[in-house]
């Protein structure tokens, strides 16, 4: 740990105090604390500045106490009366503005305690303070006792936080290793994303934390030799070494995420660094700290992708093209249905509309059940070929697989059906093929380096890579066929259920008229 608490820069504008939060930046040689905007709160400030004359006036004053009181009135008393242009959740936003206003006080209080007692790291002191101001129940209790006639809010908050840090720090309630062990995968994932860690590292960090937590808890927490007062003691090198061994042994199993399975083995030192990054990310963004992960943050890095639109083969990137493909698919299938003969149409209606089984349909047509099964298969294949004609898989699958391996091998989109199919196909390859992909697309080694490492002729390496591409293309063709079959089953069910309902309505109307 550094023995010097970084200097926190002052806000350049009064409004910044109500929509910016602290984050520890490790991107330079020494740590620094920087301010980052919470975008939805920044927009809220802009809204009030343009719509509320008093608020705009308060923003231009040198003293922030007027703005503090403005948000306090809304948060504690829902005053003044709400304007139509104000957000429905204005009380919640007021609390969030006040919490972010107190971020600076967290730093000041932590600084005071740290100067008195440097036996603990300053990050821990800041973390204890932030947990309090983002606890909605405790924070409300604190502000309810605040008297603006005695002192400004920041002075009052610093004193409350200073006492809290001393009390909580004395019992080691907020050990960083406790924090790492107690947080869920969802919380850690959100913290890492906000901190600027994305795939494939996120999956690897989560997988590493799983084994470190097991080893640490067994060796340190559940160890009878550990005294209760030393419950969350520092892990030693053996803990990280053992966790790394488990990580490397388990990463080749089916339980390991794709991003983990394709990566190199991890060393104990690397795993230790990963856990420290996780701790820093959690301290910057624990679940109890409300600045939520903004949609803008997600969309900027394209980390979360909305699920694809059903089973249509949407390889286009634009929404317009996706909708166009859906419409064209529907039109082609409608045209194919119209071209069927009367017997084929009746079979589909009985099967999908009325829910008859093949045996019942066979009895009606006085043929065998196998004959009906073959007729259904003939119709299905005709419709599949019609869908294939829209995107012509033979023409794009080869290029798609090559591009995917180059750009998405390490970071597949699990919500994309084609990405998921390729991941499964890779998992079904033999060990040699998986290792080749790991070296070529994961570790970015050229074929000459791979040839030397595996003691294989260069021509064999190139031949194997081509063979792997071909195997993945074949697997993708099979998966596309299954996807289209599933889609057709859904489409035909909806189509003939609609026809059945329309027939029922028509018959009812005829009975009424009769």
UniProtKB/TrEMBL annotation:
Q: Which domain of life is it from?
A: Bacteria
Which Gene Ontology MF annotations are present? Answer: DNA binding; sigma factor activity
Q: Which InterPro entries match?
A: RNA_pol_sigma70_r4, RNA_pol_sigma_r3/r4-like
Which processes are annotated in GO (biological process)? Answer: DNA-templated transcription initiation
Q: Where is the RNA polymerase sigma-70 region domain?
A: 339-377
Q: Which UniProt keywords apply?
A: DNA-binding, Sigma factor, Transcription, Transcription regulation
Name of the protein? RNA polymerase sigma-70 region 4 domain-containing protein
**Lineage in the entry?**
Bacteria, Bacillati, Cyanobacteriota, Cyanophyceae, Nostocales
